Structures are given as C-alpha cells and as structure tokens.
Amino acid sequence: MSAGNRTLEQIIGELEFDPQMLKQKYERERDKRLVGEGQGQYAPATDGKFAQFGRDPWTRSDFNRAPMMGHTEVIIAGGGFGGLLMGARLHEMGVADIRVIDEAGDFGGTWYWNRYPGAMCDIEAHIYMPLLEETGHAPRHRYAYWDEMLELSQKIGRLHGLYDKACFQTVITATRWLEEERRWLVETDRGDRLTATYLVLACGRQSLPKLPAIAGIDKFEGHAFHSSRWDYEYTGGQGDGKLTKLKDKRVAIIGTGATAIQIVPEVAKWAKQLDVFQRTPSHVGIRGQRPTAPDYADMSKPGWQKERRENFQRLISALPQEVDLVADGWTDSLKRLRPAYTANELGDLLGRPATSEERDLVAEISDYRVMNSLRSRIAEIVKDAATAESLKPWYRWRCKRPCFHDDYLAAFNSPNVRLVDTQGRGVEAFSSHGIVVDEVEYPIDCVIFATGFEAGISYVRLTGFDVVGRGGGTLSEHWSNGVRSLHGLMTDGFPNLFMIGGNQHSVAAVNAVHLLDEQASHVAHIVGQVRQRNGTLVEPTAGSVDAYTDLIRNAPTNGVLMRFFAACTPGYYNGEGKAASAADLFAGNRYGDGPMAFYEMLARWRQAQSLDGLSIG
Questions:
Q1: Closest Cα partner for 135 from 151, 114, 117, 124?
Q2: Which of 243, 363, 389, 613 has the fewest CB atoms within 10 Å, measured from its CB?
Q3: Strands, DSSP E only, in 264-398?
Q4: Domains present along the chain, CATH in parentheses
C-alpha cells in the first residue's frame, strides 16, 4: 500500500491507551485547579508588606549619587540580554553614544537577578547565549549556569562601551516626548533629567517577581525570600554551591515549575528537611547537562550561531531539516509531536487533504504518547509509588513550559525530601511557624518562593512607567483598545520609540534570545538608515500600524491557540485559566506564522531598503 492511501487508523496505529479516559482525566485535573481569582491569586513583590521580597541582595542599599542631566543619542531602558543586544547592534552600526538604565547593579537582567543554586538556561547555551561569535566566547556547559551568563553580559558591556554611561540602581519614573526639541525626556528616581534622540524599551517580558497571595503570609515569623533574590547569607554557598547553613533547617519550596526543578536537587543535598509544595506538577524530560569542550560546536564558520539557532527553530516548528544540530529534549519531543503541526504531511499520508478534525485527533494522540512516556519516566525514577503518582502531569505537552532536568525527580528519593501535593488548590495558609495545607500544619524554618514572575500584565505595568508621546497622549491610552504596532517594535504617535522583547505583536519564540537579537538587529538597521538619510525622526504611519495590527488580530492561529489553551491546566500561559481572548494569552496576539516566518518577514523588509510604513523627518 502506498503512503498516500493510508487510513487514519493506520496512521495512528494500535492504541495502547484509552484516549477518551485520558481526556477526561485531563479535564478533571484542570477543573480542580481553577480558582475564581485567576491572576488575583498572586501578589507583586514590589510594595507594601511584600516590598522586602523585591529588594536587590547583590548591591549596597546605601548607594547614592548626584542627579544627572545631559543628552545621549540613545537611551536603552533595561540592561539584560535585550538591552545588551540593542547596545551591541547599535554600536556595530556606528552609534556609540548610548546610555543604559537599569534597576539592577550591573548588566545581566534575568541572570543578574536569578543566582539561585543550580540556575541555568533550558535552551542549549550555544544558541541561547548572545553574541558568541562576536565575543569568541565558548560556553563551558551545554546549558550555561547563571554565573557564566552574568560573566558574558559584563564582557558584552565592556566590548561595546556600554559601561561608560550606564546608570545602574536607577529606576525610570517618567518618559515624555518633547515635540519642539524632537527628543525624549527621561526622569528617574535618582532625580535625573536625561534626554535622548531615540528611546528603546528593553524591559524583558517576565521580570517582576510574584508571590502567592496566601493568607497569613505576612505573619510568618521564619525566614522567607523569592528565588530571584536568593539569600546566600542565610543558606551559605555563594560561589561554591555548598548550602551548609541549611543543615539544621526545615526548608519549604513553594512551586514546582521551571525554577523549582533546578533548586530542589540543590537544597535537597543540604537541608535537614525539605518540603516541596506542589500545585501543578511539571513534565520533566532529560536535560543531558554536561561540560562542553571549546570545539563542541564549529565556531570557525562565519554565521555559525545564526545557522544553529535557525536549525533549532525550524525543527521545533516542524519545518524539514536534513540534520539536527542541537539534538536535545526540545527537538526530540517536537519530532514525536510532528503530526500536531504538519497538516500537509498528514494529507500526503492520507492521499487527500486532511480535515481539521483529523488533524486534531492525530495531534492529540501524538501528544498523549509523548506525555505517557514522560509519566512512565517518573514511575521508573521515583521509588515511592504515591509520590510518583503525585508528580505525574495530566495535560498536553504545550500547556506549560516544558522542563528538562537530570536530578529533579531523583531528589524525591532522598529521605529528607517530602512532596506535599496540594491537589491543585495551592497552599492554604501560613501560620507563624509553618505552612498549612488541608488543615495540616507543616513546621518550617525557611520558605523559598519559586513562584515565578508576573505575566500577562500591561506594558505599562511591565515597564513601571507610562510613556507620554506626541500631544500628551500616553501609551496606555493609545493601547486602551488593544496593542497597536508595526512589527511589534514601534507605534504611531510615539516618534523615535522602539520596544523589544516578548511583547505582543512580535512572535512566540521558545528561544527568547534569538528573538531579541532579530529585533535588536532590525531596530539598529532603522536607526542606521535614518542617520544615513540625515533624519532625526522616525515614526510608523497610522496606516502601516493599522495594517499590521489587522494582520495580527485576524491571524487564524490566534483562534487555534485560544481553543487549545482553554483546555489546558491553569498557568501563566492561559491567564490562570481565565483568558477571555487570544490577547489575554501569554503566547496570544502574536505573528501567526511562527518565528522563522516572522524573522524572514523582517529580513525582507530590511533588504527592500525602502523603510516601508515609516515616516522619516
């Protein structure tokens, strides 16, 4: 029988499970995790009784300096990988007069703040770490640890002269377009009044730590901190990972997401008792962490990192590639999920166009098989049957950020580690000396909140200030009926303003640094073109913004995403199960054809050299 005359049943093969029973199990597990508060079940670690959780532990609190005045060609808000890439790409374009402003005490962004034991990237370092070809830096591990990424951030800052005018430990409080001067005014909490021809907002996409709004959290008399503000003075171990001060401590970790799976094995080695409080388990594949030799990847070939990044992105987007250059858990899982994303391939097997129902069924069965294998891995590793059962995730593979780790599951075999499964309800309350779940109190000396960061928030909330554009209009007003942009990078009424990061209207990308580099290169191209044309002002036309916004809003994938995530277990991907539209999804309201199509669209726009959709003055 030819490949083009197969039945759907033959393509799916013999089922080793009951898909209807699995679907019902997924629905039951999702429903018991739905809570009325949605995102309201969390509290920001910014002010009031929670302010101490957001303080910077890596700098002196008594730092002070005199207010600054003056003009800079470009001000970049944010000193993480986005801000560093923006500064580097501008510098390569010949723009050297750059000022970076960041609340942190140094460059690094995520990797300045997240210094918890075991912290590493979950994307291969050779495609995740920025500017490896330009700096000649060879990652020391397949997945780089936080200290190496902080080291590279500092190297980039020095290489491109970004330390010269950097303003660290400084928070932007207001930005305003000065029409007559044709420049931006930027004010800070240090009393600075700075101006710039161009303003770039590179404020990340998940940078504000959040806490569960649990009853009595402010009454707990033990020690507590957020994972992104790790307290090594309390735990010991900064620099050597030996958390020796925990040897007589009963420690609680709240959370079992991407951060917790890295922390749990490290704390388990040292704590007298470790209780891990779980609302929803993660699915955890093999990471395969190991040291890498300098010749792990052929870094002698010009463009090697771009080639490797694009190969990875194409594979996880189900686009054909002759070779898998990265060959990790991401690409392996997506290969097994391939029928979920290749409708044409399914049609070729059937010998006719596949219906949407057939595509959904094949995708669902493929997903069940991948998740069954991940659940089987838990049963093989975790010795206690009840603990193993509680650690099993019951949802589709893409419903939560996939996790990969080599030691997380095995940590639950240690006699000092206990999983407290809250059955999807979360921690009930704090007492003065412990944590309460289902009316049972667990005595605790220290609580570590591995509860992640605020997601699905407004852009103004993310940046911490509103942007006042032409005529006194604010960005929050301009976007009151939804985001309006050209390429997710600029908007009308706000001249010389650029926004890079994972903001809506860009694209949902697994490798966030790849996206940042594409965006930074695009913005640098625009600035370079404006300079070549002796311009001082660039702004998208209202018509170009309308057209691109319509393209985003009418993308068929937005509806597909909405239906998919509505059936998912609650989490930040779907607004804790309360997303009412695709715009409310973490991955919603984006460019519909995927990352590679988005990058190629931007490249074609640059190659045309026409600056289509922009007004230059």
A1: 151
A2: 389
A3: 273-278, 284-285
A4: 3-34+297-360 (no CATH), 69-208+455-555+590-616 (3.50.50.60), 209-287+366-449 (3.50.50.60)
Q: How many other C-beta atoms lie within 10 A of the C-beta of residue 63?
A: 12
d(CA 481, CA 7): 47
Instruction: Taking the CA atoms of 5, 11, 15 and 20 in sequence, report the sign of the dihedral they define.
Output: negative
Cα–Cα dist 503/117, whole Å: 29
Q: Where are the beta strands (DSSP E) in 428-469?
A: 429-430, 434-437, 440-443, 446-449, 467-468
Residue 120 in tokens: 């590493």
pLDDT, tens digit, 9 for 90 and up, residues 330-389: 999 988 886 555 667 788 888 888 888 888 898 899 999 999 999 999 999 999 999 999
**Distance from the first to the final alpha carbon of the chain:** 65
What residues form DSSP beta bridges with 436?
A: 429, 441
Residue 108 CA: distances (Å) to CA of 114, 116, 147, 508, 536: 10, 14, 10, 22, 30
Condensed to tens digits (0 to 9), the pLDDT of residues 49-95 reads 677 788 899 998 889 999 999 999 999 999 999 999 999 999 999 99
User: For residue 458, what pLDDT is reported?
Assistant: 76
**pLDDT tier for residue 564 given thresholds of 50, 70 and 90:** very high
Residue in the structure block whose two tokens are 């984006």: 590
